[in-house]
Design goal:
Layout: E1 12-17, E2 25-30, E3 47-49, E4 64-69, E5 72-79, E6 86-89, E7 93-107, E8 110-115, E9 118-122, E10 127-144, E11 148-153, H1 160-163, E12 178-184, E13 187-193, E14 210-213, H2 222-225, E15 231-235, E16 240-244, E17 255-258, E18 262-269, E19 283-286, E20 304-310, E21 315-316, H3 318-322, E22 324-326
Parallel strand pairs: 1-17, 6-12
Antiparallel strand pairs: 1-2, 3-19, 3-22, 4-5, 4-21, 5-10, 6-10, 7-8, 7-9, 7-10, 9-14, 11-15, 12-13, 15-16, 16-20, 18-19, 18-20
The structure holds fe (ii) ion.
Fe (ii) ion (FE2) binds next to strand 17.
C-alpha cells in the first residue's frame, strides 16, 4: 500500500479510542484515508524492525534493546550455544517470546524445553539461562516493570489448565564456578558461585515461571469475542498488556487512533501473512496517537501474531534504529518513503 492509497474508497470511518480496547470511543466519517501519509519529518513515526539483523557475530549474548519507554523495554536476544552464565532481572518482569529455535530454559524454579511460538513468563528476580541448544534460539524479551500474569480475557482465548505449563525441577550442574548476571536499574553486576545456583529438586508454592504456546491461543470469532482481540497477559499497573492477534472470523479492524497506548505487533508465523508481515519475528511499532488500520484478519490462510500495548512512550534505541524501516499503517508494510 502506498502512502496515499485507500483514498479512492472514501468515505472512511475514523475511530478515536481511549484506554485501548476498554475506554470511550468516538468516530467521524472522512473522505481521506487517515492512516496514509506521504512523508514524515521527525522521529515520531511507525517503524518495522527486522531483528535478525541486530546480532553481532561474536561476544556475550546479551539482550539488545530496540524500543524503550517508561516501565518497558523491548529487547531481542540470540543464543547459538549454551549460555555460560545466568541472568536475573531485578528491575522488571520478563516475557520471553521464542521467535525460532529449540533449547532448554533452566530457571530458579526448574527447566522447560522451549521452541518456536513459546511465551515464557519470568517474574523479576528469577534467574534463567538457555542451555542444550538444539537449534539457535532467537527471542524477543519484553521487560515490564509492572507485575505480569497470564490472565486470558475472555477466558476462552487460552485454556490455562491444559495449555499453561510449569517448569520441572532439575539436577544441579557439575561443580565449578557459575556466574549470575544481575540486571538492575544501574546496569549489570555479576555474582560468582562455587556451585550451581539454579538447580534444585523439591519445590512448592505458587507457580512463578509459566509457559504457553501461541498455537494454543484461540482466535475468537466476532460472535464469541467481539472486535477486540483476546488478552493473554495482564499487568497489574495497566502499563503492558499482551493480546492474541491470530487470524479469526472477524471484520477488519476499524481505522483508529489509539490515544493511550503504543502498539507493538509481532508476526509469529503462517502459512498466511498478516498484511505486509511475512517473516516470523518481524516487529511493527505504531506510536500512540498515530492513525492506523490493520490487516484483514479473516483470511483463507491462517497466521499467528500478537500485540503488546503499552502506556510507555516508546522511542528507538540506536540498535533499534539500525534495523528499523519506516512503516505504513494500513497493512504494516514498508512505507514507500523509507530510506
Ligand atoms: Fe490499533
Amino acid at each position: 500500500m502506498d502512502g496515499d492509497s485507500g483514498a479512492k474508497r472514501a468515505p472512511h470511518l475514523y475511530n478515536y479510542t481511549r484506554e485501548g480496547f476498554t475506554g470511550a470511543r468516538s468516530n467521524i466519517v472522512r473522505t481521506g484515508y487517515s492512516p496514509a501519509y506521504s512523508r514524515v519529518e521527525g522521529d515520531y513515526a511507525p517503524r518495522r524492525f527486522d531483528i535478525a539483523g541486530l546480532f553481532p557475530a561474536a561476544g556475550r549474548p546479551m539482550p539488545i534493546a530496540i524500543l524503550r519507554g517508561a516501565g518497558i523495554t523491548l529487547e531481542a536476544s540470540r543464543y547459538e550455544a549454551a549460555m555460560g552464565f545466568a541472568m536475573r532481572n531485578v528491575a522488571a518482569d520478563e516475557v520471553h517470546y521464542i521467535v525460532s529455535g529449540r533449547a532448554r530454559l533452566e530457571t530458579d524454579f526448574g527447566a522447560l524445553d522451549i521452541g518456536h511460538g513459546d511465551f515464557v513468563l519470568l517474574p523479576r528476580a528469577v534467574a534463567w539461562r538457555y542451555v542444550e541448544i538444539g537449534e539457535p534460539v532467537m527471542a524477543l524479551i519484553a521487560a515490564c516493570e509492572g507485575a505480569l500474569a497470564i490472565d486470558p480475557d475472555p477466558r476462552a482465548v487460552l485454556n490455562v489448565a491444559r495449555d499453561v505449563h510449569e517448569p520441572v525441577p532439575f539436577e544441579d550442574g557439575a561443580p565449578g564456578e557459575y556466574e549470575v548476571v544481575v540486571r538492575h536499574p544501574g546496569g549489570t553486576t555479576s555474582y560468582f558461585h562455587g556451585f550451581d545456583p539454579l538447580g534444585g529438586q523439591v519445590g512448592r508454592g505458587t507457580p512463578q515461571v509459566r509457559r504457553f504456546r501461541i498455537g494454543s491461543a484461540r482466535g475468537l470469532g466476532i460472535a464469541s469475542g467481539g472486535i477486540s482481540p483476546g488478552r493473554l497477559i495482564d499487568d497489574a499497573t495497566g502499563q503492558c498488556l499482551f493480546y492474541h492477534l491470530g487470524s479469526r472470523r472477524s471484520d477488519r479492524p476499524p481505522i483508529h487512533c489509539n490515544a493511550d497506548y503504543d502498539e507493538i505487533i509481532v508476526y509469529a508465523g503462517g502459512p498466511g501473512a498478516y498484511g505486509g508481515m511475512t517473516v516470523p519475528g518481524t516487529v511493527a511499532w505504531t506510536p500512540k496517537g498515530i492513525a492506523h488500520h490493520g490487516a484483514e484478519e479473516d483470511v483463507a490462510e491462517p497466521y499467528q501474531a500478537w500485540l503488546l500495548e503499552t502506556r510507555g512512550n516508546l522511542s528507538m534505541t540506536d540498535a533499534g534504529r539500525s534495523v528499523a524501516r519506516l512503516m505504513e499503517t494500513g497493512e504494516y508494510g514498508i512505507h514507500p518513503g523509507d530510506g
